[in-house]
Write a structure and sequence with these properties.
Blueprint (H helix, E strand, L loop, with lengths): L1 E10 L2 E11 L4 E6 L5 H9 L6 E6 L2 E2 L7 E4 L11 H11 L4 H14 L15 H14 L4 E5 L7 H17 L3 E6 L2 H7 L2 E6 L2 E7 L12 H15 L2
Helix pairs in contact: 2-3, 2-4, 3-4, 6-7
Length: about 240
């Protein structure tokens, strides 16, 4: 699905991404974790086509990425939602742009909002929603267009612990029920292990280590001692000098 070949991304003279090679198979989930400033968000933006590499190339479905791809859903840290629109209007926007018929839009948006438990908030504006509800609206808008690739930048960073855990479970269910490849950036080790089938650990613009997570997909994974063993492994790698 995703192939990065020797990609280099610079901000003026600063090398944010330094010759990264990455492969993410179709219909898998990939977590990207690392310390602040390691280049993980830059890598995500490059996969989204929001940034262009100075050297190397990014391919998605064997097609070179030179800009924003319409089949890719992107959720940024600030959600990218429109505060002057209702929940329903935000979620339906992408479908309207694609000139879908009103009856189709009505059915699709209602189905998605119910899946994410925010149908009752459909007529509310963003300032009437909690942080967790706003996150679900952002997810709903992204998946309404039926993307084959979902990219998320720190999807739970603004949520409290209980809301975060609930949201993570909803993301996992969504992933299982949709035909999706998912790549997300996080600072949270437990989130990376819970939602990442592959865990990419970055350092100074490079991939330091890749971990294959055989426990991925189990909603009760946090009750397993092996879950915390993987968390400790990730923590140790992050702490290595």
């Amino acid at each position: 699905m995703i192939k990065c070949k020797d990609i280099v991304v610079k901000y003026d003279n600063f090398i944010a991404i330094n010759k990264i090679n990455l492969f993410v198979s179709k219909n898998t989930s990939c977590a990207i974790i690392g310390k602040s400033g390691c280049g993980k968000t830059t890598l995500l933006y490059t996969l989204a086509g929001l940034l262009q590499p100075e050297n190397g190339q990014v391919e998605i479905d064997n097609k070179l990425i030179t800009g924003i791809r319409k089949e890719t859903g992107v959720i940024l840290q600030n959600h990218g939602l429109f505060p002057w629109k209702t929940v329903w209007q935000n979620v339906s926007l992408g479908l309207k742009i694609r000139r879908k018929k009103p009856n189709f839009i009505k059915k699709e948006v209602a189905t998605i909002l119910k899946k994410l438990d925010i149908f009752e908030q459909k007529d509310k504006y963003l300032n009437q929603l909690s942080g967790g509800q706003k996150q679900r609206v952002a997810i709903a808008r992204s998946i309404a267009i039926k993307p084959d690739l979902l990219l998320m930048d720190e999807p739970t960073s603004s949520l409290d612990a209980i809301t975060k855990e609930d949201f993570q479970k909803k993301i996992l269910k969504l992933y299982k029920n949709q035909d999706l490849t998912m790549v997300f950036v996080t600072h949270d080790i437990e989130e990376a292990v819970f939602l990442g089938q592959k865990i990419i650990i970055m350092e100074a613009g490079k991939i330091k280590r890749e971990i294959s997570n055989d426990l991925f997909g189990n909603e009760s994974i946090k009750k397993e001692i092996d879950f915390y063993k993987i968390c400790l492994e990730v923590r140790d790698i992050l702490g290595e000098s």
